[in-house]
Design a protein that fits this description.
By secondary structure, the chain is mostly helical. The chain folds into two domains: 88 residues; 158 residues, no CATH class. It contains 13 helices and no strands. Helix 3 packs antiparallel against helix 4, helix 6 runs antiparallel to helix 8 and helix 7 packs across helix 12. The longest helix is centred in the N-terminal third of the chain and has 29 residues.
């Protein structure tokens, strides 16, 4: 889509009845609407921050406030369209039942992932940039989908923020994994990696202090726990999607079947 056509498409969809608009959405358009939603969200946040920085009652502040309200309206309209889009797909319904995964993330996952190209969840992990064995060499094409990786990052943030909510199953997985990662870090299990990373980090940074002690910084520990929770969510999602599409049990991913790095769980027993 060119920029003008994209704007016209969004305006047309948001003016129409939500149910009628959702029937027109292809995966390509859903991907665009998800991107547009987050752009509008960022614009609204920037506008509100700028308004707060201005004198109360100043004319520019009023204009910026109006722009922020327009962005918020667009967000709401797009979210309603994507809401209906996800309701039209069984896997969209399954995802939305997971606490922390709303219609926008659900729509993005539906639009970016092709289950016919993912015989195991490992294929999804690689496509989402969550396979640590994949390397991106200089001059090579990026070996993962950057937008899907961002969506997975947002899902991890959501699980992290909701980990104290008893309804957030994957938030509990995040918390348990973080406790495990903290224990490993305190034992010094990350010392070889810390030594490898140390020369790349500025001496004046907080991260350098942790690495110099043979430990990973707290932010890195938290990121590991979030990624783990997201990968477990994707594994459960893949299993449900595979059963729905193929009518059979999915093959075990390599880390589970061969390396024993994770445990296979029944997502239907997750309580979400």
């Amino acid at each position: 889509m060119n920029a003008i056509l994209e704007m016209q498409t969004v305006a047309r969809l948001t003016r129409k009845d939500v149910q009628e608009a959702a029937a027109e959405i292809t995966d390509d358009l859903a991907r665009y609407l998800v991107d547009y939603y987050y752009l509008s969200q960022d614009d609204r946040k920037r506008a509100h921050n700028q308004k707060r920085a201005m004198a109360e009652g100043a004319e520019p502040a009023a204009v910026i406030g109006w722009l922020a309200s327009q962005a918020e309206t667009i967000e709401g309209q797009i979210k309603r369209v994507l809401d209906r889009y996800t309701e039209s797909h069984p896997m969209g319904v399954w995802m939305r039942d997971v606490h922390g995964i709303g219609p926008v993330i659900s729509a993005g996952l539906l639009a970016h992932i092709d289950i016919t190209k993912a015989p195991t969840v490992g294929h999804i992990w690689r496509f989402a940039g969550l396979d640590p064995t994949v390397r991106w060499g200089s001059g090579e094409k990026r070996p993962w989908n950057a937008k899907l990786k961002t969506l997975c990052w947002k899902a991890g943030q959501s699980f992290m923020k909701s980990h104290n909510d008893e309804r957030c199953y994957y938030g509990h997985i995040y918390r348990q994994r973080k406790d495990y990662e903290i224990a490993r870090n305190d034992r010094g299990d990350n010392q070889p990696l810390a030594a490898e990373l140390l020369p790349r980090i500025g001496r004046s940074t907080e991260a350098y202090k942790h690495l110099a002690e043979g430990k990973l910084p707290p932010g890195q520990i938290d990121a590991r726990a979030r990624r783990y929770a997201v990968k477990q969510f994707l594994a459960d999602m893949h299993g449900e999607w595979y059963r729905f599409h193929f009518g059979a049990e999915p093959p075990l991913p390599y880390p589970i079947a061969i390396l024993g790095h994770a445990h296979l769980r029944d997502p239907r027993a997750s309580g979400d």
